[in-house]
Amino acid sequence: MEPNQISRRKFITKGAVAVGGLAAMRLPALGANVFKSSKLRLGLIGTGSRGTGLAILIKDMADIELVACCDIIPEHLKTGMNYAAKGAVAYTDYRKLLEDKNIDAVIIATPLYTHYLLAVDALSAGKHIYLEKSMTFNIPQSIDLVKRVNDTKLVFQIGFQYRYYGLYKRVKEVMDQNWLGKVSHFECQYNQNSNWRKPLNDPKMEKAINWRMYREYCGGPLSELCAHQIDMVNYMLGSHPLKVTGIGGIDYWKDGRDTYDNIRTIYEYPNGVKSSVTSVLSNAYNGYNIRILGDRATVDIQRDKAFIYAESLENKRGTVDGVTGATIAAITQGKPIELKFEEPDGTNLEPTTYCLQDFFNCVVNHKKPISNVETAMETSIAIHMGNTAADTGLMQTWKPSYNS
Amino acid sequence: MKTSYQAAVLILINYLVVCINVAFAQSNFKPIYINGYTQGTTYHLTYYAKDSIVRKQEITEILNKIDSSLSVYKPYSLISKFNNPACMEVIMDEHLRKVVKKSLEIYKKSGGIFDITVYPLVRAWGFSNKEISGLPDAATIKQILPYVGSDKLLLKDNKLSKKIPGVQIDVDGIAQGYTVDVISEYFNKKKIKNYLVEVGGELRVKGKKQPENKTMQVGIEGPAKNAQDEPVIQKVVKMDNGGITTSGNYRKYFKEGDKVFSHSIDPKTGYPVQNQLIAVTVKAKDAITADGYDNVLIGMGLTNALKFLKHHTFLQAYFIYHKKNGIVTDTATAGFFKLK
């Protein structure tokens, strides 16, 4: 064991003991002898497709050890356990997992409607939390979670992994350097040609498995797909939206679902900047895409690439007849220029890996995550505002009471 | 305060100026613009005529021919053929011959500061279209330097040859100016008397704009106060004949850490030029001369450049530079803002 790993270990110990209030009362003081490994010991609640995806990434991460999994669906639990560490414990009741003193932190990767309850219980149990996006099922839960998290010293990170992605850091850098000129519009789309339906062994499991299709479990395409793009526009503009209008429908997959199969929203940010956020489940052309429209250039962001298209600016004649200057690289010759980016470590891993690495670093160093309860609250509220706008046909405005 | 006598004289003078202008003005002339892309940048041509004399297609053909000769970005060009390690000699076409001849002339006059054999260094530093994975280290530069130096080129009649294998050339520092001259000569041949030719910020002007018969004004661009803003016009110079070009380190550069590297490479050291100059604008009889020497002056640094200009009066220059305290300022040779 390397010395710095020992110190990290001690740090986690101290952090866990330092947890205040309810958590400290419920938990016995954790002695250093409890920690036998030098890793962050993690429990995974929810081992469906997303949870399992995280488990696969964690398997390759030296600093994190998956010591427990929990799911109510036996097949899911079994799959998750395949990627867990040797000797890991399988739970079907998340409360039992939270009581497990062998666990420092939890990942919550369950359907949206359970996020709040699980997060509140995990906070009470003194666990550091990595909660999958989007954060909460409704607005009051978001506001309440901010208060609860800030009452503890626990790390609370939300799985908006694009905040950790070099691609978006590069786009933001380019925007800050004014390559795009004045940016007035974002056009976000997250389209799929899919009914989202997963096969069932037991018809009774319909809602448990296909929960994305029901409003009592989640917010549909806006919370499950476009959440990332809303979060990224918030990130790039450094602000939450001020209002939103929207229209949505169930017009294609008329299969008993009650979440939209198409929704189009327009968010307005400070200074009149508009962001259209669209999800269509019957067309996958350019599936994931954000276009940033500036008066000097456009950035076209795809899943793992971004291209810049310069506007063809007219010759700056004006009062002069010609201009001499250092050669301008003309990048509007029908060819987009790829926006190169590199992660600081030189390897371009899956963005979620950086997100998880940061979670570990935040726990060890007692830092606030980049994707934290406040940023996620803003995104979560924006999602609910968008859905409400589409549900009611009424423009929704950001209320002062939302501001934490 | 002016006396009424002075005022009357002024009015008379103004009247005469207007009369002269009207007499020479070609009132039925209008500006005709041709714009497009070439050599990785834009071009803007303006000529004054009663009606269209030159079509864009003619310009495109001229530009394509130049590309096939001088472009290091085109694998089929004559210059790419010469740069092939297996090639020791090419028969030059007119474009390559003229450009290489002028380049060698400026190489000699500048004491080797302008050097077209800098190409392997340009590539190593990532200023060509070839991407680099990291900055070259001292060993790499040392390895390249033996192949740099125009004394390793031999120009005889229509033949250009390498004295040693591995020599490669890049005429990008002068090609745009040359292209401006080629288009200008084409306009001359078409009996166009008033025009402005601009390729990638390098210009040549002849005559006056019509129908006003006014002297043409060329804006000189420089960096904006905020480095992130688009460069702005710093000065305006009137011109009625000749070339004017700018070499600047405010557009094409790259950053590593806090250090900013310019795209001008010192062929002697193998490293990017680092001095106080931000941009140099040069006026000369034609654009190729101006374009060749703007590189020389930026490579020299301000003091040496001003000394050089004292002995080379066919050049006039305007400099934007950092003072020692970091403040950006400018200066020019005595004749720079004069019409002739």
What does this 3D model show about the protein?
- The complex is a heterodimer of chains A (404) and B (340).
- Chain A is of the alpha/beta class and 404 residues long.
- Chain A folds into 2 domains: 3-162 and 353-371, NAD(P)-binding Rossmann-like Domain (Rossmann fold), CATH 3.40.50; 165-347 and 381-402, Dihydrodipicolinate Reductase, domain 2.
- In chain A, 33% of the residues lie in helices and 20% in strands.
- In chain A, the strands form 2 sheets. Chain A has a 9-stranded mixed sheet. In chain A, strands 3-2-1-4-5-6 form a 6-stranded parallel sheet, sandwiched between helices.
- In chain A, α6 (115-124) packs parallel to α7, α7 (139-150) runs antiparallel to α13 and α11 packs across α13.
- The two termini of chain A are 42 Å apart.
- Residues 1-36 of chain A have low confidence and may be disordered.
- With 340 residues, chain B is α+β, with helices and mostly antiparallel strands.
- Chain B has a single domain (30-332), classed as Roll (T-fold).
- Helix content of chain B is 33%, strand content 28%.
- Chain B has helices at 4-24, 56-70, 78-83, 94-109, 119-124, 138-144, 172-189, 287-300, 302-311, and strands at 30-38, 41-49, 89-91, 153-156, 159-162, 195-199, 202-206, 208-209, 214-222, 232-239, 241-248, 253-256, 259-262, 277-284, 316-322, 328-332.
- Chain B has an 8-stranded antiparallel sheet. In chain B, strands 3-5-4 form a 3-stranded antiparallel sheet.
- In chain B, a hairpin with a 4-residue loop joins β8 and β9.
- The longest helix of chain B has 21 residues, at 4-24.
- Chain B is globular, with a radius of gyration of 22 Å.
- The two termini of chain B are 32 Å apart.
- At the A-B interface, β14 of A face β2, β7, β9 and β11 of B.
- β14 (322-324) of chain A pairs parallel with β9 (214-222) of chain B, so a sheet runs across the interface.
